[in-house]
Amino acid sequence: MSNVTIQKRGKFYQYKFEIAKVDGKRKFISKSGFKTKTEAEKQEILHILNI
């Protein structure tokens, strides 16, 4: 797994991370709609632990 990116998109935050390479193409998981950066970080950690 690669680095996790947290970025602000408009009024909300989004997290994104790479899960695997399939046929030479990178696949990502991203979720958005978090009001704070801290909330996005917490949800990202929970998501990674559940994979």
Low-confidence stretches: none
* Percent of residues in helices: 25-40%
Number of strands: 3
With helices defined by DSSP (H or I, 4 residues minimum), what is the helix count? 1
* Helix-strand makeup class: alpha+beta
The best one-word shape is globular
SSE string, helices as H and strands as E:
EEEH
Share in β-strands: over 45%
Distance between the termini: 11 Å
Q: What number is the mean pLDDT?
A: 89
Q: Please give the largest β-sheet.
A: 3 strands, antiparallel
Overview of this protein structure:
The protein has one helix spanning 37-50, and strands at residues 4-9, 12-22, 25-34. It is of the alpha+beta class. It has one domain (4-50). It is globular. The termini are close together. The mean pLDDT is 89.
List the topology elements:
Layout: E1 4-9, E2 12-22, E3 25-34, H1 37-50
Antiparallel strand pairs: 1-2, 2-3
Question: What attributes does this structure have?
Answer:
51 residues, alpha+beta, 3-stranded antiparallel β-sheet, 3 strands, 53% strand, globular
